[in-house]
């Protein structure tokens, strides 16, 4: 386990927000829901979670900036540190009573992601990582899977929703390409959990386009600290700018990237 002051702060914020989400998840039918766009919903639970995280992190690390899913960019006096917060990744799953959602918090220092926490309150699964300290799942050290051939692997992806219809054709081409080689393909509906599962060796690889920085920030640290390779879906390094990701161990990442680029 990582016992640094930074990880204690991040974990405490995620767990506190998670307690509220768990209560609301138990009464999901009673939540007030507003439409943010086609197939893209935002709930009161989402906003409450974000406020809790914002308040907790601001109190513990005053001056740090924020990139918030709901609240947008909040500049801080300390320009070298930025929190990336997704208070409820997997909102649609949450609304439909599917226990696959998470709180995701990542910290960027001097332009590099250095720490991440992903917590699923429904299952009490906690994934944490800090640069140079490794990645952990519920106090146990985790590593990416060791399979060397994607044909033996289980690969995850994200299916673009109705609101992202413009990228449907590209996704279908990529999925078709991956399906010709991968042993299996899954779609969970929460990119942070997909990344955490790659770090834990549950998935051998993961790729997706059309993501936001807060979807990926914490998970990128987890995968890297678990020994994985991460690029954007075209093999580049500017993951946040492209809004895409491709990851796995050295061998799976290379093969998956080739399949996606070939599509």
SS elements, strand count? 15
Q: Give the averaged pLDDT, no decimals.
A: 95
Oligomer: single chain
Secondary-structure element string:
HEEHEEEHEEEEEEHEHEHEHEH
Number of helices in the DSSP assignment: 8
Strand order of the largest sheet: 4-3-5-6-7-8-9-10
Rg estimate, integer Å: 17 Å
Distance between the termini: 41 Å
Percent in helix: 25-40%
Largest sheet report: 8 strands, mixed
Structural class: alpha+beta
Low-confidence stretches: none
Percentage beta strand? 25-35%
Sum this structure up briefly.
Helices cover 36% and strands 29% of the residues.
Your description of this structure?
There is one protein chain. The chain is an alpha+beta fold and 263 residues long. Helices cover 36% and strands 29% of the residues. It contains eight helices and 15 strands. It has helices at 5-25, 44-60, 91-95, 168-179, 191-199, 213-225, 239-242, 250-262; strands at residues 33-37, 40-43, 64-68, 72-74, 78-89, 102-109, 112-120, 125-130, 134-137, 140-141, 154-157, 184-186, 205-208, 229-231, 245-248. An eight-stranded mixed sheet has the order 4-3-5-6-7-8-9-10, sandwiched between helices. A five-stranded mixed sheet has the order 12-11-13-15-14, sandwiched between helices. A two-stranded antiparallel sheet has the order 1-2. The termini are far apart. The model has no long low-confidence stretch (mean pLDDT 95).
């Amino acid at each position: 386990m990582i016992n640094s002051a930074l990880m204690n702060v991040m974990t405490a914020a995620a767990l506190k927000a998670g307690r509220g989400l768990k209560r609301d998840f138990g009464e999901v039918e009673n939540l007030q829901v507003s439409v943010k766009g086609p197939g893209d919903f935002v709930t009161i639970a989402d906003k409450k979670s974000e406020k809790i995280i914002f308040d907790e992190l601001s109190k513990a690390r005053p001056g740090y900036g924020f990139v918030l899913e709901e609240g947008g960019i909040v500049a801080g006096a300390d320009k070298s540190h930025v929190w990336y917060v997704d208070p409820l990744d997997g909102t649609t799953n949450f609304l439909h009573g599917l226990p696959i959602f998470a709180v995701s918090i990542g910290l960027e220092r001097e332009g590099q992601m250095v720490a991440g926490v992903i917590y699923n309150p429904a299952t009490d699964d906690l994934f944490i990582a800090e640069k140079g300290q490794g990645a952990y799942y519920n106090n146990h050290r985790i590593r990416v899977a060791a399979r060397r051939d994607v044909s033996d692997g289980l690969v995850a992806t994200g299916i673009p929703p109705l609101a992202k219809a413009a990228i449907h054709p590209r996704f279908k081409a990529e999925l078709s390409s991956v399906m010709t080689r991968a042993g299996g393909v899954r779609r969970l509906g929460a990119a942070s959990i997909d990344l955490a599962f790659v770090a834990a060796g549950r998935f051998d690889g993961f790729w997706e386009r059309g993501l936001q920085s807060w979807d990926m920030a914490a998970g990128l640290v987890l995968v890297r600290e678990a020994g994985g390779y991460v690029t954007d879906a075209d093999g580049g390094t500017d993951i946040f700018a492209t809004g895409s990701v491709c990851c796995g161990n050295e061998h799976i990442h290379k093969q998956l990237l080739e399949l996606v680029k070939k599509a």
